[in-house]
Each structure stands twice: as structure tokens, then as C-alpha cells.
Amino acid sequence: MYEYGDTKLHIVEGDITKMEVDAIVNAANNTLLGGGGVDGAIHRAGGPIILEQCKKIGGCPTGEARITTAGNMPSKYVIHTVGPIYKDGTKGEDKLLYNAYYNSMKLAKEYKLKTVAFPSISTGAYGYPKEEASKIALRAVMDFIDEEDYIEEVYFVLFNHKDYELYEELLNQTFKEQ
Ligand code: AR6
């Protein structure tokens, strides 16, 4: 566990659908109608209510976020955000990925949520290089805390050990420097 201001930051290796938090974040696509990866896992675990609510929302631009309930999962809400498809790093991918994290935090705060769990957005099917993506993720969360408000606990949930170690190293480095 790491502390940034009044926020506790955690890294967890595992399946985000099992997290007992106020909101888990989904790495969705612009349609919000489901897909593979973490998106598929969330819709499967949460059940059809999530798709029903997503249909009513009617899509989400890249970098923005929308919210639904979490159906059968232990969390209360799903914050659906859309990260960028990584092309070559010169198409504004960094800002869009940053916005996806920042706007998810913002929506969580609007709903007065205290605990939020993020997957590593865009680093699967969308091809974002993982190390760069992890730095953007942490920066966006820290900036939100600095600029807007704190969230009691933020979890970065990594699906394999290599990704977990990447975050562990980043957090160890970042918090050693303070
Ligand atoms: N829990 C936590 N992390 C997971 C899980 C899980 N259950 N499953 C996968 N990951 P991806 P993207 C990790 O492809 O790159 C979908 O089809 C995975 O190891 O899920 O943002 C959407 O509909 C990877 O590190 O999302 C979009 O079309 C990370 O989650 C598209 O994929 C993100 O991988 C979005 O692509």
C-alpha cells in the first residue's frame, strides 16, 4: 500500500470483476456494447443489466466516462471509459489515455464513491505500451487528487504478474522520490 495525500493506492494482481469496491472501471469501446478482454469479463460477471443500461447511454467518446450499476458483481458501479487505440504515439494517445483515467476519477467523485479499481486501460487489444501507460495512469490519478479532490482508495488491478511488477516498480520509484 502506498499513500498519496489522503488517498491510499493499492496494486493487486487478479480479476477486476471480483473487487469489492464502490466502482470498477471498464476499458470499453465507443459503442459501450461490450467486447473482449476486461470488457467481456465485466459484462459476463455483471449480467445483462449492464448491457441494458449501456444501450440507454448510447456510447462514449474516447477519453470520457459513463456509469452503470455492477449487476451481480460485488462492486456497486461500473465506470465505463474508453482508452485510445495506440497507433504510433503521435496521435494524441497519451492525452486520451490520461483523460480516460482522470474523467473516471471525476465521475467517481461526482457519485461520492470512496473506492475505485482500475484495469490497465488500452494495454490489451488497443496495444498501448504498458510501461508508458502505467506512468500515465499514475500521473492522472495523482493529478486528480492534487487538482480536484481525494478518493479514499484507488486500486490498480493487474491481470498478470509481469504487469503487477511493472506497477510495483513504478510506485516504489515514485514514492521513494518524495
Ligand atoms: N481483470 C483485470 N484486468 C483484465 C481482465 C480482468 N478480468 N481481463 C483483461 N484484463 P483489454 P483495451 C487486462 O483488451 O486494450 C475490448 O474488446 C488485460 O490484460 O481488455 O483497453 C473492448 O470492448 C490488459 O492489460 O482493453 C474494446 O474494444 C487490460 O486489461 C477493447 O477491448 C486491458 O485490455 C479495449 O481494449
Automatic annotation (TrEMBL):
It comes from the Bacteria. PROSITE patterns: MACRO. Residues 1-175 form the Macro domain. This is O-acetyl-ADP-ribose deacetylase (Regulator of RNase III). CDD domains: Macro_OAADPr_deacetylase (cd02908). PANTHER family: GANGLIOSIDE INDUCED DIFFERENTIATION ASSOCIATED PROTEIN 2-RELATED (PTHR11106), MACRO DOMAIN-CONTAINING PROTEIN (PTHR11106:SF27). InterPro entries: Macro_dom, Macro_dom-like. NCBIfam families: PRK00431.1-6.
